[in-house]
TrEMBL record:
<keyword id="KW-0456">Lyase</keyword>
<keyword id="KW-0479">Metal-binding</keyword>
<dbReference type="InterPro" id="IPR029065">
    <property type="entry name" value="Enolase_C-like"/>
</dbReference>
<dbReference type="InterPro" id="IPR018110">
    <property type="entry name" value="Mandel_Rmase/mucon_lact_enz_CS"/>
</dbReference>
<feature type="active site" description="Proton donor">
    <location>
        <position position="159"/>
    </location>
</feature>
<dbReference type="GO" id="GO:0043748">
    <property type="term" value="F:O-succinylbenzoate synthase activity"/>
</dbReference>
<feature type="binding site">
    <location>
        <position position="214"/>
    </location>
    <ligand>
        <name>Mg(2+)</name>
    </ligand>
</feature>
<dbReference type="InterPro" id="IPR029017">
    <property type="entry name" value="Enolase-like_N"/>
</dbReference>
<feature type="binding site">
    <location>
        <position position="238"/>
    </location>
    <ligand>
        <name>Mg(2+)</name>
    </ligand>
</feature>
<feature type="binding site">
    <location>
        <position position="188"/>
    </location>
    <ligand>
        <name>Mg(2+)</name>
    </ligand>
</feature>
<dbReference type="InterPro" id="IPR036849">
    <property type="entry name" value="Enolase-like_C_sf"/>
</dbReference>
<comment type="pathway">
    <text>Quinol/quinone metabolism; menaquinone biosynthesis.</text>
</comment>
<feature type="domain" description="Mandelate racemase/muconate lactonizing enzyme C-terminal">
    <location>
        <begin position="138"/>
        <end position="235"/>
    </location>
</feature>
<comment type="pathway">
    <text>Quinol/quinone metabolism; 1,4-dihydroxy-2-naphthoate biosynthesis; 1,4-dihydroxy-2-naphthoate from chorismate: step 4/7.</text>
</comment>
<keyword id="KW-0474">Menaquinone biosynthesis</keyword>
<dbReference type="GO" id="GO:0009063">
    <property type="term" value="P:amino acid catabolic process"/>
</dbReference>
<dbReference type="GO" id="GO:0009234">
    <property type="term" value="P:menaquinone biosynthetic process"/>
</dbReference>
Amino acid sequence: MKIDPFALELADPLATAAGTIDAREGFTVAYRHRGERGVGEATPLPGWTESIEACREALDRAAAVADEDASERDGSGHGPALLELDAAETPAARHGFATALLDADARADGVSLYQWFDADVGSVSSVPVNATIGDAPVAATVEAAEEAIESGFEALKCKVGARSVAADGRRLRAVREVVSEDVELRVDANAAYDRETAREAVEEFASAGVSYVEQPLAADDVAGHRELRGRGVDIALDESLSEYVPQTILDADAADVLILKPMVVGGPDNAHALAMRARDHGVEPVVTTTVDAVIARTAAVHVAAAIPAVRACGLATADRLAEDLAPDSCPVADGRIAVPQSSGLGVEVDYD
Ligand SMILES: O=C(O)CCC(=O)c1ccccc1C(=O)O
Ligand SMILES: [Mg+2]
């Protein structure tokens, strides 16, 4: 297993109620499996996943198991090595190795990763995506919304909760005025509110025609989120998935929508399985990145492509990066992101 660190600056930092994301650091993972070299990416986001140090340690541990097994036994060390990586403890590390294995497996089988997940989805050339609009004053928010609409997005996700409910209400109504009613408006509070403020916020968002609010309350407040449902704006849970296993949220009827970040749930395979389980419970899955580099972003696109008739996903995050690890394999046009059709992940990383 080959583990290489990288660090990427953001050209367009993402301002949220929980702080601004302005750089991403992680590791590429390369692993030979079934005669193919698979590539993966582990890009931890502290607060959401393990730290960069814990990620490195976990990957080194998995590499030791995989490499020892490969040299001393039958070369099938990926099983025990993957089991070294706990999806709850070190989700980014597991994501990195699992993606490399999935890439190699799908390449060996000669199918694109999304079809490797589910051959029955048929051919999916693109999936719908939302534009991601950070926290900003009214004028800049409206400008970002207009720009997104001009480039063809039909869903906008606006960060809220860094300002008062009244101030966010002004931002959202101003956006509503310049975009047509057909445009889906979502918001993401990143756990900014207490219960009382959240009820006021939901009322305000309903009047601006918001479809769903991501994580209005703290990650551990499952009961609070359940009580917020049915007030005219759907409830989507995101941070709660780094606190609880998804089954807890599904069993508690705490969400209308589950935001699945492969980097946070421990890999594209886990994200796909959880998406299907959510659907079975009548909860809609939405796949998003954690503003990752091209390998993880592309893996997330394959997860979304394997979900039949998936809602707009939060995958249009490439433009925020000042640089990337390889050319973009999933360009965005007209509000949709392209799904690579070559075998495996479809990302060619130049190691020289
Ligand atoms: O969903 C999107 O549109 C983009 C992804 C996004 O918002 C995000 C990116 C990094 C970390 C957290 C989040 C989030 O959804 O809260
Ligand atoms: Mg969110």
